[in-house]
Amino acid sequence: MPTSPLDLLKIDHLLTDDEQDIAATVRDWVDDRVRPNIADWYERGEIDLGLIKEAGALGLLGMHLTGYGCAGTNAVSYGLACLELEAGDSGLRSLVSVQGSLAMFAIWKFGSEDQKQRWLPAMAAGEAIGCFGLTEPDFGSNPAGMRTVARRDGDGWVLNGTKMWITNGSVADVAVVWAQTDPDESQSSRPGAGVRGFVVPTNAPGFSAPKITRKLSLRASVTSELVLQDVRLPADAVLPEVTGLRGPLSCLDEARFGIVFGALGAARDCLDTAIRYAAEREVFDRPLAGFQLTQAKLADMALELQKGFLLALHLGRLKDDHQLDPRQVSLGKLNNVREALTIARTCRTILGANGITGEYPIMRHANNLESVLTYEGTSEVHQLVIGQALTGENAFG
User: Fold this and answer.
1) Given this structure, which CATH class describes domain 5-124?
2) Where in this chain does the record put each Acyl-CoA oxidase/dehydrogenase middle domain (predicted)?
3) Which of 118, 201, 259, 332 is the most interior residue, by most CB within 10 Å?
4) Residue 273 has pLDDT above 80, yes or no
5) Domain 247-391 belongs to what architecture?
């Protein structure tokens, strides 16, 4: 009797009953609502935005946060949910991750009580969609160089600038936008020391979010540019509890943690597909699964998937114990996304020409993982983070 890849190590034994129940609930929802439709959504370059309210009803939005209508689950449960979501599609996990770990987390962690009460309950329910504006056309890995600026204007602020590659941007109700403030706003000369976060309603005059089209990856995800032209905001639009790059970077750590688990979902779906296909496909009058080279590929991929899961689970337990270091998240994202992409590509070879069609999920996952590999910290950036931890030398720049 064949054994599924994650059952070889009896990994479920490492999870609590509640964690397994959450994973099963999300898996069932993905099977029911996403799998029958995702190939068409991906081909058309769209996603059913009704999923956001359904995700809210399931408690998935900001699920690892407490209060304000959030579920307050542990970090491992959130990670498992990300895994199941990305087994459906990376775009779906991105939708949930940006909502909860970037936009909601920023307000929850650094916002005023008024900002939290205004936005978090609606975002947790999926009644309001959020986005996170940090990356710019010329500044991705070096956010300290951002050109978006916020200047004082009487009691308020005026924002000008452009953000790029913003998930949910053109469908969002609220944007958390990071900008350089006036020089006298910061007493430090460190790059990025004057960066502040702003809670920007997307109906504010001067705010626009053109949708980015012609993507070959993450097609079932809304990706946009944010354009801010003299966007006037009241004084209380600023996130009061943080100044400097520590704010946006800590939000990215939250989202990267979800990716550590999420990428494994895409890999698992590819591997499950390849195993089923190899059992059914006959080559030279034998099942493809009966050939040594096929089994060698499957064994190597199953091993990497299990190792990646154990790494993710370890990081999740550290996070739940409040001991997780951002450098450890870099280890997780670097390894798990890289290995997930390798698994997707190898599974494609098992399916041969069928692997490139939309009838199977493998090429879709592989294309998506190309984006996951570079967003929220490229592999090279994470290598430098780890290298600095090992040597004490800063090799950035």
Assistant:
1) mainly alpha
2) 131-231
3) 259
4) yes
5) Up-down Bundle (1.20)
pLDDT digits (tens, 9 = 90+) for 278-318: 999 988 989 988 999 999 999 999 999 999 999 999 999 99
Q: What is the 3-state secondary structure (H, E, C) of the chain?
A: CCCCHHHCCCHHHHCCHHHHHHHHHHHHHHHHHHCCCHHHHHHHCCCCCHHHHHHHHCCCCCCCCCCCCCCCCCHHHHHHHHHHHHHHCHHHHHHHHHHHHHHHHHHHHHCCHHHHHHHHHHHHCCCCCEEEECCECCECCCHHHCCCEEEEECCEEEEEEEEEEEECHHHCCEEEEEEEECHHHCCCCCCCCCEEEEEEECCCCCEECCECCCCCCCCCCCEEEEEEEEEEECHHHECCCCCCCHHHHHHHHHHHHHHHHHHHHHHHHHHHHHHHHHHHCEECCEEHHHCHHHHHHHHHHHHHHHHHHHHHHHHHHHHHCCCCCHHHHHHHHHHHHHHHHHHHHHHHHHHHHHHHCCCCCHHHHHHHHHHHHHCCCCHHHHHHHHHHHHHCCCCCC
Domain boundaries, the chain: 5-124, 130-243, 247-391
The per-residue pLDDT for 184 is: 54
Name the band, by pLDDT with cuts 50, 70 and 90, for residue 115: very high
Indicate which residue of 339, 376, 380, 393 is catalytic.
376
Q: Is 376 a catalytic residue?
A: yes
